[in-house]
Amino acid sequence: MTGSDGAGLRVAITGMGLVTPIGTGVEAVWESLSRGRSGIGPITQFDTTGYPTRIAGEVRDFEPELYMDRKTARHVARYCQLGLAAARMAVEDSGLRPSTMDPDAVGVVLSSGAGGMEEIERGHRMLMERGVSRISPFTAPMMITDIAAGLVAIELQAGGPNYAVVSACASSGHAIADGFEVIRRGDAVAMIAGGAEASLTPLMIGAFCQLSAMSRRNQDPAAASRPFDVGRDGFVMSEGAAVLVLEEMGHAASRGARIWGEVLGAGASADMYHFTAPDPEGRGAARAMRAALRKAGIGPEDVDYVNAHGTSTQLGDIAETLALHQVLGERARSVPVSSTKSMTGHLLGAAGAIEAAACVLAMDRGLVPPTINLEDQDPQCDLDYVPNRARPAEVRVSLSNSFGFGGHNASLVLGRGPSANAKGA
Amino acid sequence: MSATDPAPAGEPLDFSELQRMAGEILGVDPDRVQLDVSFARDLAADSLDLVELIMAIEDRYQVSLPPERLEGMRKVGDLWEFLQEQHGAA
Fold first, then answer.
1. Average pLDDT across chain A, whole number
2. Residue A359 appears among annotated catalytic residues
3. Residue A122's domain is classified under what CATH number?
4. pLDDT tens, A24-47?
5. Cβ <8 Å between B27 and A138
6. Residue A36, CA distances (Å) to A157, A176, A357, A367, A390 in order
């Protein structure tokens, strides 16, 4: 797989760091993905009395002080704690040591959809209850959505291009796309790219309840995220972080790095349709996928696996199915398509990155993770969604979709690494 | 007892409590919080850390540090002196 349209440098994936409701670390996450294990449970982070939705995917037993000193942990929001933890793991996994490199060599694009939501709520509570003088001086830096990227640069001494891309639930899809482009055009040797989200807060959950966008299957949390199933009743919000180390292929090869996979292409588009609802025909989504394939220099016939956005909403799952028909044509029904959100829930601004990691692992392990809770497939969703059980398959090329409120679409085309455990289907 | 619960009225000031609060907020060993120690140089506290510490002290001792005095808070001893002054006045 050359994986390039010849316009730029090749981009390897040399490290991954994951902090999720289905596990912390690559192997723990893979264990859950391959066994079809749900990470959804009752919300424990605040009192949900009176909330129609009382379930989410929480990262349990997270100890920030394993990844940062106590003072830093106190002065950053939870999404930053999760993001820094994932970034440290990813960089360690890659073997890169940014602090010993040219400061311009390694950059960070670390996204979030909502940023430090709990700090906004805390600061606002202090303002209302006790006045302006009781707002913490750390509220401003803690609440902003870009600060995780800055924190990672400080902690890991990575001085290259540094920012967050914000596009709701497509944020970390765009982050990886941007990191890929930065390396392709030669502006950095490596990019720490991904997303972090921790917005399971009273306001955020309440606001999404008011949109009627989330599942209310409170009595059976593990079955709540059920993409493409007739019984689906909305998405399940989750928290977590996923970070990839992207690295210029020649640099990775010259230092003998393990190459997990390759970013072959990325595409982006707008639905031009509605704030929150997808274009019912999936036209914007289809354009993003086609753009990603074009950039990768390959055609739809080369796609072996699709990790769907597949949030488990009524409209979204149908629209994406239609988009996949448009892009894959006759092959649409024979390409395995799964939604790992059935297990992880929806990590919002971290979703694109955890799903890119799921693609990399599917290619590496020769096993496609399932869509769990798919008991009664919606007739309007007529693809092969790999129901309920992981399936051995040789996957050379994966397509990963992320779509966000605002009509933002991001698609990534990822290729298998050279040392993958290729199992024939 | 949390650092933000007000201290009972009439209770004598306790330096070890200031050490404990500063240690917690500045992320240092409380034993390093001594009168002649500089917030910035010795405890790596920046201006935001100092504002956070002073807010906690204000809540705990029901005092209020005038903004113009913030500039003068360079050493732990400056803060302790301010507290004693306020405590004596109460």
1. 96
2. no
3. 3.40.47.10
4. 999 999 999 999 999 999 999 999
5. no
6. 37, 26, 16, 12, 7
* Same domain? A240 vs A185: yes
| Kind and range of the H or E run holding A142 | helix A139-143
Quote the tokens at residue A116.
């430090």
pLDDT at A423 over 60: no
Please report the number of interchain residue pairs, chain A to chain B, with beta-carbon separation below 8 angstroms.
22
Residue A7's pLDDT is: 67
Rounded distance between C-alpha atoms, residue A260 and residue A272, angstroms: 35
pLDDT at B1: 42
Q: How confident is the model at residue A259 (pLDDT cuts 50, 70, 90)?
A: very high
A4 lies in some domain: no
- Candidates B46, B49, B59, B78; catalytic one: B46
Is residue B52 assigned to a domain? yes
Rg value, chain B, Cα = 12
Q: Residue A77: pLDDT above 90?
A: yes
B46 labelled catalytic: yes
ipTM, interface predicted TM-score of the complex: 0.83
The verdict on A138 touching B (C-beta cutoff 8 Å) is yes
Task: Select from B84, B88, B89, B85 the least CA-distant residue to B18.
Answer: B84
Query: How many structural domains compose chain B?
Result: 1
Contact at CB, B51 and A137, closer than 8 angstroms: yes
| Confidence (pLDDT) at B48 | 92
| The pLDDT value given to residue A9 | 95
Q: What angle do CA A145, A149, A155 make, to 5 degrees?
A: 130
Q: Answer yes or no: do A273 and A359 share one domain.
A: yes
A138–chain B nearest CA distance, Å: 7
